[in-house]
Batch of 4 targets.
Target 1
Amino acid sequence: MKLTGKTAVITGGNKGIGAACALAFSREGANVVIAARNMSDSNRIVEQIISEGGKAAAIAADVSDHEQVKNMISRTVEMFGKIDILINNAGIIADSFINKMTLEQWDKVIATNLTGTFYCIREAVPYMIENGYGRIINTSSVAARKGAVAQSNYAASKAGIIGMTLSLAQELGKYNITVNAVAPGYVATDMTSNLPEKIMERANKVIPVKRFGTPEEMAAAFLYLASDEAAYCNGAVLDINGGLSL
Ligand SMILES: NC(=O)c1ccc[n+]([C@@H]2O[C@H](COP(=O)([O-])OP(=O)(O)OC[C@H]3O[C@@H](n4cnc5c(N)ncnc54)[C@H](O)[C@@H]3O)[C@@H](O)[C@H]2O)c1
């Protein structure tokens, strides 16, 4: 198993891509902490992991709230003794054309996707330095590469995550902490389930492999970056989008 003895925090680990990561990481031997807002969804994934013989815990945390993040990270260390892997996956959309975008839509998306990622890294890094080991994997998007209509807030947050990833890879490498990102394309989760039929059809036409990705296909990329096999991979952004960004 690839992650035996490792402790992984997965934000937004109770649904979609995050839940697929939680299950995949646990099946590779990691202790998994699911950090998300909805405890009933989180408990469902924790129960599934425990029923498969793994170890997991759910901690309620809104990643856009610094105090809650601080508490979530310190509780993880109390429970499992360390943090080896941090998956910054929690994210939201609040789409709107720029002339109609409210300040709240802008602020909420930046606060969750970008500042939330910063809070989690800031609080986890001291424990990783102390431990002499860390794997941080952030979640960007194809929207950071290409932009997307009505997603200026979302694309800005996800492009910011790439800048943060490249900077921190240079800053933290000497501590044996690698920082990488996964940039998914269209993935079949709740986030894309409300897309209008027309946009779904268009997307399926323009994606070179002619379909949406699955959460499990994304989890495989996160798993690679979290594993010891990726020890020399630092500052990479893995585009997992069926060729959409080409
Ligand atoms: N689905 C896609 O097509 C797609 C494409 C590119 C990138 N992504 C990114 O992948 C990540 C996961 O998305 P998904 O498709 O699984 O979406 P999802 O809506 O199924 O899951 C999002 C998760 O984030 C959590 N979350 C949201 N706000 C939070 C907050 N403030 N604090 C804590 N948790 C919070 C939710 O509870 C949920 O668990 C996101 O960062 C998203 O931007 C998704």
Target 2
Amino acid sequence: MAEAHGVLVIGEVSDEHLHNTTREVLAAGRALADQAGTTLAVGLAGTSLAAAASEALHAGADHVYTVERPALLDGAIELHLAALAAICRSVAPAMILLGRTAQGRELGPRLACRLGVGLLQDCLRVELDTASGHLMATRPVYGGNVLARVRCMATPQVAALRPKAYAPLTPDATRQGTVTPVSVALETSKARVTIVRQARQDSAGVKLEDASIVVSGGRGLGGPEPFRDLEELAGMLGAALGASRAAVDAGWVPGNWQVGLTGKTITPDLYITVGISGANQHMAGCSGAKVIVAINKDAEANIFREARYGVVGDWQAVLPAFMEAIRGLK
Ligand SMILES: Cc1cc2nc3c(=O)[nH]c(=O)nc-3n(C[C@H](O)[C@H](O)[C@H](O)COP(=O)(O)OP(=O)(O)OC[C@H]3O[C@@H](n4cnc5c(N)ncnc54)[C@H](O)[C@@H]3O)c2cc1C
């Protein structure tokens, strides 16, 4: 690689538009690039990238590098990796950021390995370590019990950011930048993984990650049926439904409802939890909520340490009264 310079964001494209998490990562990258007095680029691999490329410039990038090929249509990871690694070699960035999305989790370790460096996973914050000029990140360790500040020693420094850790910048349609295609030989015949089928699980109503109100249930609900009550409550509030991992693991609700370290990260204005103990791994996904309201029968439950408002009691008694009060307000 040429001498490393600048910050490169590994972008994601969804339905021909820039993925929301990429906008968030661009906000982090913009701040980092400004701090280092350098440029911010984004790498995009896929098909039909024109719209996403302009959106990336509007969202803070100075330069866009693209590999646009039909072979990248189905999202096969090895071909994406080859395309994005080619962009990295061409750009020779000092720092690389990506989102810890489903694709980012597959891509990040592979890309770092291919570049011969380590990967900082699940970062909440990235900044410049002024002493070394390298990237410094804040990330949870020991299941979210401790926040560690870690510095990369090698170059490029690669960090995967937790979704919702940063708010995207307000798009600025007047921002200009360059869009450069990168050429790479994609050896489709050598791909060891082929995508056989892709299924999209659409969630009805408000999307959990984007909802301003979320109602979540946990093991304390005792089974799948009480989630119908939560569904009714969510309907009254225009809220999305979530769950703890215990409820998901029990098979009471689908996996894409899970909030937490190994589930979704949410940042709603209001988060109502029912029968959730508030384990650190759960809180890792909802600590960005502005107001947490907890219903739990155990006054010592950890959730009450984080909740602004709490009701100590059996949800079967509390929830109907709570819903009646909301009906009254309406
Ligand atoms: C590596 C790792 C990753 C993990 N990732 C996640 C994750 O992403 N998300 C996640 O949620 N968890 C995750 N977990 C699991 C986590 O540690 C907890 O086990 C889980 O969050 C507990 O779910 P819960 O609060 O529903 O159940 P419990 O901890 O069993 O809590 C149930 C609560 O319900 C209350 N309750 C019981 N009956 C009633 C009633 N009638 N009325 C009112 N309250 C009642 C109880 O007092 C209790 O506080 C992870 C764990 C590990 C090790």
Target 3
Amino acid sequence: MAALGASAEIGDLARLRPPKYPARPPKPVLTRPADVPRRRLGSIEGRIALLHAIAHIELNAIDLAFDMSARFASEINSLELDCLAFLRDWISVGGDEARHFGLITHRLSELGAAYGDFPAHNGLWETAENTSDNLLARVVVAPLILEARGLDVTPGMIARLRSAGDDQSASVLEIIYEEEISHVACGKRWFHAICNARSLEPIETFHALRAEYFTGDLKPPFNHKARERAGLARAFYDPI
Ligand SMILES: [Fe+2]
């Protein structure tokens, strides 16, 4: 890693553009969101469907983190920001996401299922593709909108799993939830650093990119406490 500090090697990194599509296993079959199984958590089938959907999100999150580091490191370098810190941060996030994927797939196996047993949709990666030429848009959409949305919905899932008696799955989601707060915080840190390097006003820039690159609304209810822990001020998602 230290060797990447040399400018020639950063240049080499810039030429190594990541692929348009990450390598994926032959299953799950990718389908429309409406065709992905629903998640009624009172039954074991419902809990398996939920865990399968989360495993798919985690796999996309692995790809998004490593894509971020490989695709945009040279741009960070050209902004005279700390390229090694950027690589270290997103590779570390990718490592967390890989661990999350392992935790979820292990839990699926305890329930007699496996990743790939059900169809999944490709919405997350399509979002990544839409922002593949715009570093700030990627930071806005991936960590600051989609991962932050995960902070809003995960506590409810944990509560429903606990009330269904599935403490093991709930405990896995609790680990993931805590670590996702640090991922949103990482996105927020880099968002500000890039805005600062380009002399952009952060809140105005966030909302302009959100309107251009994110289809849909930022949906309440918001988990203000977790968002605050991630350093995400209300002006970024629920301006009064
Ligand atoms: Fe994750």
Target 4
Amino acid sequence: MPTSISFARGAPCPEALSADVIAACAAAALRDDGVRVLSYGTGNGYPPLRELLAAEHGAQPDQVLVTNGSLQGFVFLLETLLSPGDVVAVESPTYDRALLQLTLHGMDVLPIPMDADGMDVEALAAACEAGRVPRLLYTIPNFQNPSGATLSAERRRRLIEICDAHDILVLEDDPYGRLRFEGESLPGLWTMADPGRVIFTSSFSKTVAPGLRVGYLVSPPAIAAKLAGAASRTYISPALLSEAAIHQLIAGGGLEPNIEKVTALMRERRDAMTEGMRHMPEGTEFTTPQGGFFYWMTLPAGLSADELFEPAAAAGIAYVKGSDCVLEGGERTLRLAYSGVGPAEIEEGMERLGAVFRAAAVTTG
Ligand SMILES: Cc1ncc(COP(=O)(O)O)c(C=O)c1O
């Protein structure tokens, strides 16, 4: 059995996790505010961190809910704002765990196709015109999980126009936006839209450390109060030491250098995977991401990423099947995360994966 190389996990590589920096932040948090950090707090999270995040987003602290990971915030939102049968629009493909939660909560999922410029917003408009108006639109506008695509500036404007026209609440999930390798950052939907239209969510899992489990939501005040109630009912208060450590990191000026470091590591890995694409069979389609953690690939006609999952595993390579990121279809697609492994492993992994796919292409061709 060859050593295994995982392109499956959307997690930062070990080199991106700065244990010494976080140790110093946690020590400072306990020294400066030990009693509060070690006590039960309010359901909506550590107040000093909420204040910083509120200021960053031009909101009031009461609008910010800091959760044990942003996926938890997503679940609170489903539980408090929506009811089974509600129409929720998502990009197709979308984040597999979000899709799973929507399905588990009985939502009527409306998949909106996407291309290299993000969601096809005219397809959303057409669905609305045809009477399928979602209550919520879930979008990952920057370096999307799983496609790596970024919603263009023009589509951002049009998206807000459509959501205003049909009164659709938007959930903007942006854990990858700060990890940009090249090109200009685009304004977020939260900043572009009128107040009340957008809920913003992000996480420190990709920019600092997923094990800290610190994510957050910034919402209109009435929604924020409901979310805070759900948090307090579920876990009384979130893990305050993690939140206080992140607060120390931001307040002490350590977040920006950390993001620069992680961005450089991810750029190196993205470049290694771009190089490794030469191992893929002729006719494989992909677009090089400008940031984030993921490459999305479409295999040539006749090849199935679902069927080749086991042969790839036998060669020691793991990936996420595209079919797990859509409601139906997607058999020719897969997600490759370059984030968690080193450049040399990426080259080796792409060589092995390419060999599996090329062998299958010869058999089917
Ligand atoms: C788009 C997106 N949203 C949310 C999450 C969940 O992040 P967290 O670790 O904060 O729960 C992920 C993690 O993969 C993600 O890709």
